[in-house]
Amino acid sequence: MITVGSLCFLFRRRTKLRVTKSTKRRITEATGNYSVPIYPYKDIEKATNSFSEKQQLGNGAYGTVYAGKLYNDEWVAIKRIKHRDTDSIEQVMNEIKLLSSVSHTNLVRLLGCSIEYGEQILVFEFMPNGTLSQHLQRERGNGLPWPVRLTIAAETAQAIAHLHSTINPPIYHRDIKSSNILLDYNFRSKVADFGLSRLGMTETSHISTAPQGTPGYVDPQYHQDFQLSDKSDVYSFGVVLVEIITGMKVVDFSRPHNEVNLASLAADRIGKGLLDEIIDPFLEPEVSNDAWTFSSVHKISELAFRCLAFHRDMRPSMTEIATELEHLRLSNWSSFGDNNVTTSTELSSCSTSSYQSEKPLKMIMEKKVEPEVKANKAYLRIQTGPVALKSLERNNSASPVSMQDPEIWLSEQSSPSSYSFPSKSFN
Question: Where is this region: Disordered (predicted)?
């Protein structure tokens, strides 16, 4: 009996070792010349307190993300993949391959992975200020001022343009959305979640693939003809620009039937010159009292309108978008001091102490941004303060994909935003 038990134990152990070695080999093959650190599973388990619910940041369809403190006292985001079938392995390998081969200030950084005991775990740099979506929806703070929104848009565009134009072959993200735009200590943009990304073709302008992505952000022409191109990301980014201007949900069934889809609503209002009807009320004081804000908001709306064109050939490239946004952002540079980050007095709402909690991570001491007002302009000083977890309700609403017809639905499951902190966040 003891002998049989021992044999079973040795067999299981040998099988796990064989699978682990095979996975390590696949990681090496996927990353090529790029080295991806492999963390021992026991270190991951210790960092997350055995995957404690108290350290859970988000829970998506494909995985759960935890805050973890490594042996060197570094806080990281640990993404634990739920499914362990062939598709999930391919998605993990795809994400490792892409993230290990690209480097940009505004792309989330992969720190390593763990593949022991049948687990599929990715380790990312820690983003304490959650997602752009959370701030636009007032799930964190009281709202972002226009200069901060514009800076986030410009930085995000630069990151996507880098994927499209600098990498060879180009990379198409396929899931650009506000909940995949993470914010660091100083509210700098970091594009995340490359699980659905695909390499483009150098000899053609598009590739054929079944539509995937998040409903409400998916290029309607891509959904129609299955032809994926860089302009599919452009459409999705156009939806993000509309979110930045309006602060509205991408889908909202409380709105009239023909306005459920935000892209459709925005295209209608912008096309009719009625943008003022949908501008985020939080921005109204800035828009009404500052000529530059008024002008730049309208220019961004025109850019969003072009991004949302049904025919991909009518949309600008991400390089053109990034250039336009950066030029617009810098046009107001003279309005700020030498040592500031573009912002306004309301930025304190992004890091107010009222959003701190009593959870275990409250003792993390990191930089936070607070404004110092002078002559109605904001100058930032960096201070240290506690960063803490706050529970947030997850928005599970689905949304139509076509700005032409809200009745058309996307049946494919959207990609996970698991390390974009949808359920809980740091502040």
Answer: 391-427
